[in-house]
Every structure is written in structure tokens, then in C-alpha cells.
């Protein structure tokens, strides 16, 4: 069974839209866990547009692992080393983007990433790198000593030609290099099927669609339905 990490960022988007204290991402995470979430994912963006520092501190107390998504900045590394989530997923960030547009360019930023990954590992945090399904990026990820990569499925979700094959080849290559393979972004009940069959896939992180479905079904039921689709 593939593990499901439920990303609760957009519960915070709804909360912040009215400057209220509800809906509470921590409460949403508890319902997601009831529905079968194996972990909770949350992205503390540098502009704090949805999740805030105090959300991460509270989410850290959940009964399941917290996958803390963050830009590879000094501020975020220091925060992560302080609160020590189970895992940190390093992602690229652009201020103007609506969501994460591509993978982290680990080739370009390898020198800077090396020391940051080391520091996170010294704090006993499992590091994953959110990258495109590109052999060069995967090779560098392995060289940097990250135990996990998360493959960006955004282009696949948008129907880009040949993307499923790229993801398949990337998962195979990563496995060969000893990396644990995760995937996520833009996944739905409709498009998750072929992703579940990626070689050696261990975890999927899914957020925006599940929180959207939760408007109709409730989070617990939305997550339950996704879980039924994650068996190979
Ligand atoms: C890194 C990734 O693909 C997403 O989980 C990320 O958190 C997306 O950012 P938003 O949640 O702000 O859309
Ligand atoms: N890392 C991907 C993630 O956490 C969820 O992405 P999305 O389902 O919100 O697009």
C-alpha cells in the first residue's frame, strides 16, 4: 500500500481569506487522519500566504509524521532544525506563482543545498527533494545525500505528452540509485491511477484536490476515497 500524505495548505487559504481562526488546519489534519492519512504535509511559504509558523508548531504534535515543505532558505532551515518535523521536503518558491510551478533545480543550487541538507540530517530530519522527473536532477539528488525524492507530477496532471513515461523512467532510475521515491502535485481521483503504478513508489502527497472534495464530502470521506485508489 502506498502511503498517503494529505496536504492541508488550502484549509489555511480558506481561513486566511476572511482573517478568521477557522477552518483550523490542525482540526482538518485530525479528520484526514481519521480518513486514513498516513502523514500530514504542510508548506510554510516564505510569504505565509496560507500555513503560518504556529500551524507547523501545532501540526508537529500530531500522531502521524509531519512532512514539512519549505524553500531551502536560511530562515526555513533554522525553523525546521528547531521544531524537528519527521521530514522536510525542499521545494522551489516564486513569489508570484499560484502554486509550485516546477521542481527544485538541485543541479544549479547544489553547493548551497549540500550544507543545508547536512544540517537537516544532523537534526535527524528525513530530507526529501521535490524535483522534476529528470535524470540529471535525480543523479545530483543522490549525490547530495538526500534519502528521498518527490517527483513533481504537475505536468502529468496537466496532460503533458510523454510525462507518464518520464515519471516511470525517473522512478526506476531513482530506485537504482537507492533513493526512496515519492510523488505529488495536481493529483485527483481521476488521474492518480497510473501514478500508483510507478516502480517502487512509496508515498503520494495530495492536497488541493482533496481539500476541494472535502467541501462536498468532508475531509474524512474525501481521504478515505483516495486511499481506496492507492492499492497496486
Ligand atoms: C510542493 C508542492 O507541490 C505542493 O505541495 C505545494 O505545497 C504547493 O504549494 P501550494 O500548496 O501553495 O499550492
Ligand atoms: N508535494 C505535493 C503536495 O503536497 C500536494 O500538492 P497538491 O495536491 O496540492 O497539488
TrEMBL record:
HAMAP family reported in the protein's UniProt record: PdxJ
Lineage: Bacteria, Pseudomonadati, Pseudomonadota, Alphaproteobacteria, Acetobacterales
Catalytic activity: 3-amino-2-oxopropyl phosphate + 1-deoxy-D-xylulose 5-phosphate = pyridoxine 5'-phosphate + phosphate + 2 H2O + H(+)
GO cellular component, one term: cytosol
Protein name: Pyridoxine 5'-phosphate synthase
Active site residues of this protein: 43 (proton acceptor), 69 (proton acceptor), 185 (proton donor)
Entry's family note: Belongs to the PNP synthase family.
Enzyme class per UniProt: transferase
Gene3D superfamilies, per the entry: Aldolase class I (3.20.20.70)
Pfam families in UniProt: PdxJ
GO molecular function terms listed in the Swiss-Prot or TrEMBL record: pyridoxine 5'-phosphate synthase activity
Alphabetic keyword roster: Cytoplasm, Pyridoxine biosynthesis, Transferase
Pathway field: Cofactor biosynthesis; pyridoxine 5'-phosphate biosynthesis; pyridoxine 5'-phosphate from D-erythrose 4-phosphate: step 5/5
Residues reported to bind 1-deoxy-D-xylulose 5-phosphate: 9-10, 45, 50, 99
This enzyme's EC code(s): 2.6.99.2
Gene: pdxJ
Amino acid at each position: 500500500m502506498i502511503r498517503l500524505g494529505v496536504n492541508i495548505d488550502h484549509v489555511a487559504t480558506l481561513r486566511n481569506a476572511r482573517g478568521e481562526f477557522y477552518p483550523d488546519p490542525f482540526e482538518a489534519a485530525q479528520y484526514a487522519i481519521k480518513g486514513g492519512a498516513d502523514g500530514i504535509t504542510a508548506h510554510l511559504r516564505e510569504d505565509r500566504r496560507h500555513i503560518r509558523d504556529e500551524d507547523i508548531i501545532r501540526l508537529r504534535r500530531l500522531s502521524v509524521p509531519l512532512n514539512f515543505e519549505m524553500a531551502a532558505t536560511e530562515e526555513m532551515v533554522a525553523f525546521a532544525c528547531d521544531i524537528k518535523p519527521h521530514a522536510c521536503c525542499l521545494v522551489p518558491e516564486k513569489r508570484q506563482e499560484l502554486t509550485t510551478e516546477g521542481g527544485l533545480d538541485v543541479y544549479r543550487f547544489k553547493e548551497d543545498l549540500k550544507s543545508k541538507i547536512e544540517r537537516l540530517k544532523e537534526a535527524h530530519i528525513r530530507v526529501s527533494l521535490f524535483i522534476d522527473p529528470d535524470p540529471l536532477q535525480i543523479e545530483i539528488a543522490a549525490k547530495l545525500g538526500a534519502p528521498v525524492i518527490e517527483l513533481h507530477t504537475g505536468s502529468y496532471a496537466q496532460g503533458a505528452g510523454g510525462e507518464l513515461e518520464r515519471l516511470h523512467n525517473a522512478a526506476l532510475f531513482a530506485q537504482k540509485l537507492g533513493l526512496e521515491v515519492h510523488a505529488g502535485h495536481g493529483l485527483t481521483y481521476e488521474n492518480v491511477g497510473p501514478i500508483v503504478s510507478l516502480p517502487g513508489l512509496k508515498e503520494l502527497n495530495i492536497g488541493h484536490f482533496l481539500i476541494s472534495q472535502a467541501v462536498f464530502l468532508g475531509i474524512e470521506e474525501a481521504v478515505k476515497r483516495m486511499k481506496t485508489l492507492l492499492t497496486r
